[in-house]
C-alpha cells in the first residue's frame, strides 16, 4: 500500500470516537455493520470503525485491486510467486468448473469418497475381514489442523469409525491415539503434502511397526493423502490407497482436498459434499457481492485495521460452541503462517503490522480464565466471538445461557462501566465482532472456513505480501536436522555457539540415563 494512503487511513483510524459515543450518535450502526451471507450473521458494529473509515478501507481494497487478485485466485493463477506456484484451492470445491485444476481435483475426490464410504460400510476391511473401527490420521500443520477441527466441529454428524489425530513427534501423542485401538481394525491415514515431514514420517514408521506386529498385510491398513505420490508408493502405500492432491493447494488451504479424507470417514461422502458446497457458496459470494456486504472482504479489512492501523498485536478467537473449540488452533496456522511476514512481494518492509497473534479458547471457559485481562488489562485485544444460533443438543436452556454470555461479554467489552473505585471500573471501548452460523452443519461450516480462507488472503493483499509461502519455518527445520544427527551420534560439540552448551548438556544427560 502506498505510504500516503496508509497514513490517511491511519489518521482516520485515530479520529474514531469511542464505541459508546459511536452508538449514541448512530443507533442504527448495527444495520450498516452487519452482514448476512451464506447462513452467517456477522455483526461488526462493536469494532472501532466509523462510516468514513469503512468507506476508506473499502476504497483502499479497490486501489489494491483485491477483487482482481480474488479473481486470479479463483482462476488458479500463479500468486505464490516466491515458489512460482499456482494458488488453486478454490477449484477443489467447484464441481461445475471445467478447468484442468477442477478436473484433477474432482477425480481424486471421487476416489477418496468411494474409499471412505467402503471403509464406513465394511466393504473395505483391510487384511483381516474386521470392519475398521478406528481411523488414525498422522499429519501435522495443514495436514492435521483442518480435518481435526472439522471432525470435532461436526461431531454431531459422526456416523462412521472413530477418527483420531496424531501430529506431535512426542511419542505421547501416538501412544494416546493407540490406547484401546485394535491393530486388526485400525486404519492409518498418512497425511502429508510433501511426504517428507520429519514428525509425520517418524510417527508413520512407528505406526507401521505397530500394525505389522499383529497384522499380516500391513499396507492394507494404510492410506496416504499426499501431493507426492511417488514418495508414498516408495514408502509402501498401495496405489489404490494413495489419494492425491497437488502443489497448487497450500497445506493450510487443503481441508477441501483429499486431506479431508478423515472427515469423509467420520461423516460420509454425502455430508462431505455438503461441506464443499458450503465452501463453494462462500467462493461465489466473495467474487460477486458488493464490497460493503461482502463478508470476507469486510472481515479482512477489519482484521487488517486492527493489526496495521490500531496496532493491536493480538486477536482472541473465542468459539461459543464447544464443537468449534479447535477453530483457534486452525486459524493460528491459517492466519499466522500466511501473513506472519515482514516483507512485501516487492521485497520491501511492509507498512504497519502484519499478522496478529491469533489465540483463543472456547467460551465460556475463557471467561473464567483470561477475560479479566480482556476487560481490564493494559492491552486492547480485539475479540472474535464465533457461535451457532441453533442448539445442537437437547439442552436448549444451556444453549440460551451460552448465547446470553456471548452477548453480555461483547457488550461489557464495548461499553464498560464507570465506578468510583478504580479496580471496579471498566474503561470499555474494547472491540469485538460476533460471527454466528445459523446451524453448525457441514454446509455452514464449509462457508465459515472459506470465509476465513478468503479473509486471510485479502488481508495479505492489503499488506502487499505473499500469503501462500512459509519460508519462516525453514530455518528451524534445517537446524533441527543437524541437531538431531548430533544427538543420535552422541557427539559432543566443542565449538562455542549459543546452543551447544545446552546440546552438550542433553547428550551427557542421555548418556547417563542409558548407563543407569
Ligand atoms: O512446516 C510448515 C508446513 O510446511 C506447513 O505449511 C504444512 O501444513 C506442514 O508443514 C505439514 O507439511 P506436510 O503436509 O508436507 O507434511
TrEMBL record:
Pathway terms, separated by semicolons: Carbohydrate degradation; glycolysis; D-glyceraldehyde 3-phosphate and glycerone phosphate from D-glucose: step 2/4
Xref: Pfam families: PGI
GO cellular component labels: cytosol
E.C. number(s) listed in UniProt: 5.3.1.9
UniProt keyword list: Gluconeogenesis, Glycolysis, Isomerase
Any one GO MF annotation of this record: glucose-6-phosphate isomerase activity
Gene3D superfamilies assigned to the protein according to its UniProt record, in alphabetical order: 1.10.1390.10, Glucose-6-phosphate isomerase like protein, domain 1
Protein name: glucose-6-phosphate isomerase
Catalytic activity: alpha-D-glucose 6-phosphate = beta-D-fructose 6-phosphate
Enzyme class: isomerase
Gene Ontology biological-process annotations: gluconeogenesis; glucose 6-phosphate metabolic process; glycolytic process
Similarity comment text for this entry: Belongs to the GPI family.
Amino acid at each position: 500500500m502506498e505510504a500516503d494512503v496508509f497514513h490517511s487511513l491511519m489518521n482516520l483510524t485515530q479520529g474514531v470516537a469511542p464505541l459508546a459515543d459511536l452508538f449514541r450518535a448512530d443507533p442504527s450502526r448495527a444495520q450498516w455493520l452487519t452482514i448476512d451471507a451464506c447462513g452467517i450473521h456477522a455483526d461488526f458494529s462493536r469494532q472501532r470503525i466509523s462510516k468514513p473509515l469503512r468507506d476508506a478501507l473499502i476504497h483502499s481494497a479497490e486501489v489494491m485491486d483485491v477483487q482482481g487478485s480474488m479473481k486470479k485466485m479463483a482462476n488458479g493463477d500463479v500468486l505464490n510467486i516466491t515458489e512460482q506456484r499456482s494458488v488453486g484451492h478454490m477449484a477443489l470445491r467447484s464441481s461445475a468448473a471445467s478447468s484442468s485444476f477442477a478436473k484433477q481435483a474432482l477425480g481424486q475426490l471421487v476416489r477418496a469418497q468411494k474409499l471412505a464410504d467402503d471403509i464406513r460400510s465394511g466393504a473395505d476391511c483391510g487384511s483381516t475381514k474386521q470392519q475398521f473401527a478406528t481411523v488414525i490420521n498422522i499429519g501435522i500443520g495443514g495436514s492435521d489442523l483442518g480435518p481435526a477441527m472439522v471432525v470435532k466441529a461436526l461431531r454431531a454428524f459422526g456416523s462412521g469409525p472413530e477418527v483420531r489425530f496424531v501430529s506431535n513427534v512426542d511419542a505421547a501423542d501416538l501412544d494416546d491415539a493407540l490406547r484401546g485401538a485394535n491393530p486388526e481394525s485400525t486404519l492409518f491415514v498418512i497425511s502429508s503434502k510433501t511426504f517428507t515431514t520429519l514428525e509425520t514420517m517418524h510417527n508413520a514408521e512407528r505406526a507401521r511397526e505397530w500394525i505389522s506386529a499383529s497384522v499380516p498385510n500391513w499396507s492394507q491398513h494404510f492410506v496416504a493423502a499426499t501431493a507426492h505420490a511417488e514418495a508414498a508408493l516408495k514408502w509402501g502405500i498401495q496405489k489404490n490407497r494413495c489419494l492425491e492432491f497437488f502443489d497448487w493447494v497450500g497445506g493450510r488451504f487443503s481441508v477441501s482436498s483429499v486431506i479431508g479424507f478423515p472427515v469423509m470417514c467420520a461423516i460420509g461422502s454425502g455430508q462431505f459434499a455438503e461441506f464443499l458446497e458450503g465452501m463453494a457458496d462462500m467462493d461465489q459470494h466473495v467474487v460477486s457481492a458488493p464490497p460493503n456486504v461482502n463478508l470476507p472482504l469486510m472481515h479482512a479489512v477489519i482484521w487488517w485495521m486492527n493489526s496495521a492501523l490500531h496496532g493491536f498485536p493480538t486477536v482472541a478467537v473465542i468459539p461459543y460452541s464447544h464443537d468449534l473449540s479447535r477453530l483457534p488452533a486452525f486459524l493460528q496456522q491459517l492466519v499466522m503462517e500466511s501473513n506472519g511476514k515482514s516483507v512485501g512481494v516487492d521485497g520491501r518492509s511492509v507498512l504497519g503490522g502484519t499478522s496478529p497473534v491469533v489465540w483463543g479458547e472456547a467460551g465460556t471457559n475463557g471467561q473464567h480464565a483470561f477475560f479479566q485481562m480482556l476487560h481490564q488489562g493494559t492491552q486492547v485485544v480485539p475479540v472474535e466471538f464465533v457461535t451457532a444460533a441453533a442448539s445442537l443438543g437437547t439442552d436448549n436452556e444451556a444453549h440460551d445461557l451460552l448465547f446470553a454470555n456471548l452477548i453480555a461479554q461483547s457488550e461489557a467489552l464495548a461499553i464498560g462501566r464507570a465506578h468510583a473505585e478504580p479496580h471496579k471500573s471498566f474503561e470499555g471501548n474494547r472491540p469485538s465482532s460476533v460471527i454466528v452460523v445459523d446451524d453448525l452443519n457441514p454446509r455452514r461450516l464449509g462457508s465459515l472456513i472459506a470465509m476465513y480462507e478468503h479473509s486471510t488472503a485479502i488481508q495479505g493483499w492489503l499488506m502487499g505480501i505473499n500469503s501462500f509461502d512459509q519460508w519462516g519455518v525453514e530455518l528451524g527445520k534445517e537446524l533441527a536436522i543437524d541437531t538431531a544427527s548430533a544427538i543420535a551420534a552422541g557427539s559432543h560439540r566443542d565449538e562455542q555457539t549459543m546452543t551447544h552448551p545446552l546440546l552438550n548438556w542433553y547428550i551427557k544427560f542421555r548418556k547417563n540415563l542409558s548407563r543407569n
